[in-house]
Design goal:
The protein is mostly helical. Helix content is 80%, strand content 0%. It is flat and about 50 Å long. The two termini are 12 Å apart. 21% of the residues are buried. The model has no long low-confidence stretch (mean pLDDT 91).
């Protein structure tokens, strides 16, 4: 089965939304107090929830269009790369050579998973 480019694009957008959701959860948690209300009424945490709902909608829409899970789902692993880049931008977190090596391995794994037998 040939995987449509629209499905691939949806999974890549989902990976960006997933990384944005992680950032919003982190930044919301940084601003929350120990009160449960500070979590429930936290706009950043709610934004993270919205991002993850978007991820699930994109997953379903992409799968509806067709394609191989062995190709599509590994694309979502780019979330880890996007998260590292967001952490660098937002918090100044260092991206060390070992992190870059991990990113290269992720990308290599995605290529290998997407190859036809």
């Amino acid at each position: 089965m040939q995987t449509p480019w629209t499905s691939i694009a949806m999974y890549l957008v989902a990976s960006l939304l997933g990384a944005a959701g992680q950032f919003l959860y982190k930044s919301g948690a940084d601003r929350a107090s120990s009160s449960i209300v500070s979590y429930i009424a936290n706009i950043r945490i709610l934004g993270g929830v919205f991002c993850y709902v978007g991820v699930m909608v994109l997953f379903v829409a992409a799968l509806k269009r067709g394609g191989s899970l062995t190709l599509l789902y590994p694309l979502y692993a780019t979330t880890f790369i996007w998260s590292a880049l967001i952490a660098r931008w937002a918090y100044g977190t260092a991206i060390r050579p070992v992190h870059v090596a991990g990113m290269v391995l992720l990308l290599g794994g995605m290529v290998l998973m997407g190859r036809a037998p």
